[in-house]
Each structure stands twice: as structure tokens, then as C-alpha cells.
Specification:
Blueprint: H1 8-25, H2 28-33, H3 35-41, H4 45-59, H5 74-85, H6 90-102, H7 110-129, H8 133-145, H9 151-164, H10 171-181, H11 184-187, H12 198-205
Helix pairs in contact: 1-4, 4-5, 4-6, 5-7, 6-7, 7-8, 7-9, 8-10
């Protein structure tokens, strides 16, 4: 293995300069060619903050999601990696994801819009998995209570959460998630008659 002779400060500056160059080029093949190096650079908090700002700018383009409904774009994969590396960036990542979820994608067909929002929900569930639990659930409850999201999306969220969590559940988790789990409009299609499904078991765990 090659041992770097650069100081931490020099390594950080090098990482900033190289990712800044890639961002200025804004060329997807270049990003893909350098993706392993970029992922190493994302371990630097200052680089990650810059990448979040870059991703925010790129995804603001109304045509960004055109043709990408069947795969997760690289920019969102980088956002996942930032969430993995930097707990202190979780709120910033969440503030990036929320307007992306709420935005209208009128140039896409309705089913495509649903798939895009499911993709963004999956990023939120990933954020939940790495520790940003209560704010994510509170946001989806807000969407449910204020009818700002299609019920199928809340259902997708509920199913994903049950897949990645297990007991024991904290009192705060129960307080926030139980109203979603007990809402028949959301979870009835996820439940079965013998109550062996994860939603029914969660409700039973909470005392019915």
C-alpha cells in the first residue's frame, strides 16, 4: 500500500479541489470514472457539504428526473453516502430531500411521479436507518395528517420502515409511527387476516 505523505490539511484541500473540478465540469461520465475516489473524498465533512449544495443545484433542473425512474441517480447515491459518513449532516441531507419529495413533476406521467417520490422516500428511510429516525417519521406523519402526499406513498414508507426496524421500539418511535400503522387507509393493504404481518405485529407490540 502507498502511504500518503500529505498532511490532513493538504489531503482535504486536494479533495476539495478535485470534487470542485468535477462539479464545474458537471459531466456524468467523469463522475462515474472517478466515483471510487469521490466516495473517499466524501469522508471529509467540508467536501460533503459542498456536494450537497452541488446536488441541490443539479436536481433543481425540472428535467432532472426525466428517464431515471428505474434507477437511482448518482447524485442521490452520493447523498446516501454522505448520510452514512456524517451524522452531523443528517439534518442538512433531510432538508435537501424534503423539497425534492414535495416538488411537482408535471412533465412526467402520474405513475412516473409516484416512482420518483418512492425513490426519495427510500432515501429518507436510509436516513432513518443511519440514525435520523424521529424527524423522518414526524415528516411523513405531517404528510399524512395534511394530505400532502398520495396514500400509496405513505404506505410505501410504512412498509419500508417495518422492513428495516425491529423491537424493542422506543416510546418516541411508537408515539410517532403508531398513528400511521393504525390508519386503515394506509396499512390495510399491508395486513393479512391472521395478523402475521409486520404492521399487525407492531400494533400488537404497542398493546393493540
Amino acid at each position: 500500500a502507498v502511504v500518503s505523505t500529505q498532511s490532513t490539511g493538504e489531503q482535504t484541500i486536494n479533495a476539495i479541489e478535485k470534487t470542485h473540478k468535477l462539479a464545474k465540469l458537471d459531466d456524468m461520465p467523469e463522475w462515474l470514472c472517478n466515483i471510487e475516489t469521490v466516495f473517499k473524498y466524501l469522508k471529509y465533512p467540508v467536501v460533503s457539504m459542498g456536494i450537497i449544495k452541488y446536488c441541490k443545484e443539479v436536481t433543481m433542473d425540472s428535467s432532472y428526473f426525466k428517464g431515471v425512474t428505474d434507477s437511482v441517480p448518482l447524485h442521490l447515491i452520493m447523498i446516501d453516502e454522505i448520510a452514512n459518513n456524517h451524522p452531523l449532516h443528517h439534518e442538512t441531507v433531510f432538508e435537501f430531500l424534503k423539497p425534492l419529495f414535495e416538488r411537482s413533476h408535471e412533465h412526467l406521467q402520474e405513475l412516473e411521479q409516484i416512482e420518483i417520490r418512492k425513490m426519495i422516500i427510500d432515501r429518507m428511510v436510509h436516513l432513518l436507518c443511519v440514525g435520523h429516525v424521529i424527524p423522518v417519521i414526524q415528516y411523513m406523519r405531517y404528510c399524512l395528517d395534511n394530505e400532502t402526499a398520495d396514500k400509496s406513498l405513505i404506505r410505501h414508507f410504512a412498509a419500508e420502515v417495518m422492513e428495516v426496524t425491529t423491537s424493542p421500539y422506543s416510546a418516541e418511535f411508537i408515539a410517532e409511527f403508531l398513528p400511521i400503522a393504525k390508519n386503515p387507509d394506509i396499512t390495510a393493504p399491508l395486513r393479512n387476516i391472521n395478523e402475521s404481518d409486520s404492521i399487525s405485529q407492531f400494533i400488537e407490540y404497542c398493546g393493540g
